[in-house]
Structure formats: C-alpha cells, structure tokens
Amino acid sequence: MAGAGAESAVEWLVSAAPEPESCKWEWERNPLGVALLPAGRLWDVLILPGELGRPALDVITRITGPPGPVLADMTDARLGFFVPPGTAGRWVGTGVRSAGHGTWIVVPYPGRSTGAVRWLVPPDGSGRLTDPVVLELAMHEAAAYLADGPGGTGPAGPAGATGGGGGPVAGE
Fold it and tell me: What is the pTM of this model?
C-alpha cells in the first residue's frame, strides 16, 4: 500500500483514536510498529479462530469481493474482521471473540509488517466494513467445508454450492 491509499487508510484509522496525532506518533516511534485503537466507535472486530477465519475470508472474497479490513496474528491463529459498530454487543456465535465499545485493539500501520499482527485485507480509507450477515453466512459455509473435509461432497465440497473441487481455501 503506497501513496494516497495508505494516507487515507491512516487517516481513517486514526480518526477512531481519542488523540489522532498521538496515534500517528506511536506508529512512527513504537519499535513494534503498532498502536492501540479503541473499538466500538468506527468499527467493532469479530475475532475468529484461523481455521475458520481463513476459509470464511475466502468465501466472502469470492462472493462479494474484498471485505472490510481483516487483521491476523503472525501465526494466523486468529483473524479479526472489522464490522460495523454495535455488532460485538449483539454477536452470539460460539468460539468467536469480539472487541466492541470499551475495548482496544492492536493495529499495525497500513502497509507495514510487524512482529505481532498484520493486515490480510488492509483498510483502504473508504470506511468499508465487513457485513456481519455475510460474515456469518461465510462462516457457515466454511464450517460445513471443514466438517466435510476437502474431498467431501457437502455444501462446500466439490459438488456443492462453492464448486471448484477442493473447497474455499486456495491451495488445499
């Protein structure tokens, strides 16, 4: 991410901070390249286990195009989908953690790698977020695929709705 896209992404992210200039300063000076931003103002974050989050991300991307921003820890054990504010308070999914009003998240500078967290789908500055209904449907399809396995014939297998002989995760 370079130029005007990175700049607008930075401006959008720091607009959630109580002190935007302090957030920018933190990104520049923190050796980890991260800052803490409050959830619940411009976005909430739904945190999925990686084994469910990766195929769900693939389903969303194939069906609707790029989702809103998505964070991953460096081992891909957890993926954080940016969703509209208020979603965390209404979410009832088992195994899905959430960050909403009153919580803070670690956010890397757009376009830079860090040691702890990275962008799988970086923000573009537009404020686009993942639709939680689409995310839930993608999670159901991903869970069906995982339950069936890559060679299965269930809803997400080769003969199912997603077709393609191998399920929603590229390379499997």
Answer: 0.83
